[in-house]
Amino acid sequence: MPLRVVVAGATGVVGRTLLPLLRDRGHHVTALVRHVDRLDGAAAADDVAVADLLDSAGLRRELRRVGPDVVIDQTSGFGRADQDEGLRRTAQLRECGSRNLVEAAVEVGARRIIGQSMTAAYRPHGHDVLDEESPLWTDAPGCWGDAVRALAAMEEAVLTCPDIEGVALRYGALYGPNTHYAPGGAIHARVCGSALPLVDDGVGLTSFTHVDDAAGAVLALVTGGEPGIYNVVDNEPAESMEWLPAYARMAGGPAPVSLTVDQARAQLDWLTVHQLTEQRGATNFRLRETLGWRPMWPSWREGFAALFGLWPG
Fold first, then answer.
1. 82, 88 contact by CB (below 8 A)
2. Which residue in 107, 118, 110, 113 sits closest to 77, CA to CA?
3. With b meaning 16 or more CB within 10 Å and e meaning fewer, what string describes 225-247?
4. Residue 14 and residue 6 in contact, taking contact as beta carbons nearer than 8 Å
């Protein structure tokens, strides 16, 4: 049955991929944006709502006008050049903006809200690949801890409200066109500039999520699936010693240099060292088994190859 769907963050990499998929399913799609001039022809929508998630009155006004059945939050501050500023902006969006969005969605009678979280927020634990029952690292240091606590607050707001069905999707490292991993993106620049090294034995695990698979999971959960938390990742969590050299080769960059942990801590920010040495990956078992979801890109290997024109088709 066609639904009225609002997508916040419609100009982001997942939002732009998601909008045409929703319309192809017959849903009436409203793009919720802060600035209408950022929404060009590349983001097809039936309607446009202009509001800031941090402006609760304006947000409620726009949602009352639209009257959505489902509200989807794909907003993020990670597109900013400065990592710490991106973390702060994202924390603010998750802690305050998401609460405003839940309250507005309930007020206008929406039946389901889908929020965006991330598997990188899991507390590291040995060499385990983590599932949705694993704890978030809410006492992590610095800006990262602030961001994780905000994610936990967002998930609580989305999942515990009795008046709406709440879904939280925990993405892995998003890659694909127009992401940090694409040519010209931040990760691409760091790798090609020999600024992202291998550290120690490189056992930090990353779970990757292609933007096509993130959008596909949202699409499936608009009309199906039980409320709750789902990891949206590919089938192959990868240690940095594996994915980083492979990415460098496909990008045409130099082989990554190798640093000890002490050298890395002296030269790199804390978060990068954590990701390369102790971060844990995640399993997509719950989403596969309960919803029958399958990633279009089962492994980052094929996804990276396609990103650089090295994959057939």
1. no
2. 118
3. beeebbbbbbbbbbbbbbbbbeb
4. no
Tokens (6 digits) for 252: 């045409």
Residue 48: how many CB atoms within 10 A of its CB?
16
Report how far residue 204's alpha carbon sits from residue 227's, in angstroms, rounded to the nearest whole number.
31
Q: Per-domain residue ranges for the chain? A: 4-181+208-233+281-297
Q: What is the pLDDT along the chain (313 residues), one digit of tens a residue?
A: 899 999 999 999 999 999 999 999 999 999 999 887 766 654 579 999 999 999 999 999 999 999 999 999 998 876 655 677 777 887 888 888 889 999 999 999 999 999 999 999 999 987 789 999 999 999 999 989 999 999 999 999 999 999 999 999 999 999 999 999 999 999 999 999 999 999 998 899 999 999 999 999 999 999 999 999 999 999 999 999 999 999 999 999 999 999 999 999 999 999 999 999 999 999 999 999 999 999 999 999 999 999 999 987 6
Q: Interhelix angle for 98-107 vs 56-66, to 10°? A: 40
**Paired strand residues for 172:** none
DSSP readout, 41-65? TTS--SEEEE--TT-HHHHHHHHHH
The architecture of the domain spanning 4-181+208-233+281-297 is: 3-Layer(aba) Sandwich (3.40)
HSE-up of residue 164 (Cα within 13 Å, Cβ side): 29
The answer to whether the beta carbons of residues 279 and 204 sit under 8 Å apart is yes
Are β-strands 238-239 and 205-206 bridged in parallel, bridged antiparallel, or unpaired? Answer: antiparallel
